[in-house]
Specification:
Length: about 100
């Protein structure tokens, strides 16, 4: 069963997002204490971050990019796309990823 607190690639963890939230807010928003809402917003963060990173990396690839760089970059782009799709499913189903 997939872990709802860690993206498939392992790059995005709920604990990292929670730490970022706690550092960036002097007082945590009221919704933060609602577990379902916290997971929904975590999913949105994963989707946004994964898509942004994938687009930025894809934008750096050119036809003359050496294969030893382009291959791993394309693999990471695909992994980030899977993370974004996982996040969309997480947002739809909540923590119950098995229902997706």
């Amino acid at each position: 069963m997939p872990d709802p607190e860690r993206s498939p690639s392992g790059l995005f963890r709920m604990s990292a997002w929670e730490g970022e939230m706690e550092r960036s807010h002097a007082q945590l928003p009221r919704w933060y204490w609602n577990e379902e809402e916290r997971h929904r917003r975590y999913a949105r963060w994963v989707e946004a971050e994964a898509e942004t990173l994938a687009m930025r990396l894809a934008g750096l690839l050119r036809p003359d990019t050496p294969a030893d760089s382009a291959g791993p970059a394309r693999a990471l782009i695909e992994s980030l796309a899977r993370d974004a799709e996982w996040a969309r499913r997480l947002e739809r189903t909540g923590r119950n990823l098995a229902a997706a």
